[in-house]
Write a structure and sequence with these properties.
278 residues; alpha/beta; TIM Barrel; 9 strands; 51% helix
């Protein structure tokens, strides 16, 4: 079984919700990102999204946009992000998702990116601005390397659109099922959350439609909001994705040691909240 699918099986058997943590690789530096990723895993993250910084991050709010700017200034590129992924993989078997916009993939070439990602130990790609109807070539390239492609569903996705996304993102032979990323609200990351409890309830229907795990992201900035977005132990979403709140803590930390402590403390808080009985 693929590493990422195995993790969700283990979580389901244990009655636990998944904690997926996003890091913009290169912020504050490429070297530090590797250490922060390992801190997040040690503190309880089940899945890591390793972000490729992009100069025009249209889905990301100000906090992640600043993180991307700092990462680009620090020399982060798609290839260097994958080098960091490789170093993390050498120390951990945690599932890794490469989070990127499509432009870096297009420039490098889909087949090359899939090949490099597999070599770095990545399990799936999440390309935030690639419509599922246009993702066929990338999905094929990834499947040939044993990688998944994570689909996104937004609050404005009506039933017919969700069905179209499901058809266009059905895992190909050789690829993991991975998960569906359910966006909890309209707007960019880090904005004020809408109804996270409703997002958790919606995730149940998406799980039935897609027949794979569903994680809720956007607007989760504390243990309490993570628990709300995940929903009931026996229902709701399969877990949550947290990014902006962690990037904000990294940005505010005054030193490398403080950054590590901030990551460890916050991820531990999220893990405890998700594991608390209802």
């Amino acid at each position: 079984m693929h590493r990422i699918d195995q993790r969700f099986v283990e979580l389901r058997r244990a009655g636990r919700k998944a904690l997926c943590v996003y890091l913009c690789v290169g912020d504050p530096s490429l070297e530090a990102s590797g250490f922060l990723a390992l801190e997040a895993i040690d503190a309880g993250a089940d899945v890591l999204e390793l972000g490729v910084p992009f100069s025009d991050p249209t889905a990301d709010g100000p906090t992640l946009a600043r993180a991307a700017q700092r990462a680009i200034a620090a020399g982060a590129t798609l290839e260097r992000v994958l080098e960091v992924a490789s170093r993390v993989r050498a120390r951990s078997e945690a599932p890794l998702v490469l989070f990127t916009y499509y432009n870096p993939v297009l420039v490098a070439g889909e087949a090359k990116v899939a090949r490099l990602a597999r070599g770095a130990g990545v399990d799936a790609l999440l390309v935030v601005d690639l419509p599922p109807e246009e993702a066929g070539p990338l999905r094929g390239a990834c499947a040939s390397e044993g990688l998944g492609v994570v689909p996104l569903v937004s609050p404005t996705s009506h039933a017919a659109r969700i069905e179209a996304i499901r058809r266009a993102s059905t895992p190909l032979e050789g690829a993991p099922r991975a998960f569906v990323y359910s966006i909890s609200m309209t707007g960019v990351t880090g904005a004020n959350p809408s109804d996270l409890a409703a997002a958790a309830r919606d995730a149940e229907g998406m799980r039935r439609a897609f027949d794979r795990p569903v994680l809720v992201g956007f607007g989760i900035d504390s243990g309490a909001s993570a628990k709300l977005a995940a929903g009931e132990v026996s229902g709701g979403a399969d877990g949550v994705v947290v990014g902006t709140a962690l990037a904000r803590r990294i940005e505010q930390a005054a030193s490398g040691d403080e950054q590590r402590r901030a990551v460890r403390t916050f991820v531990s808080e999220l893990r405890r909240a998700l594991d608390e009985p209802a």
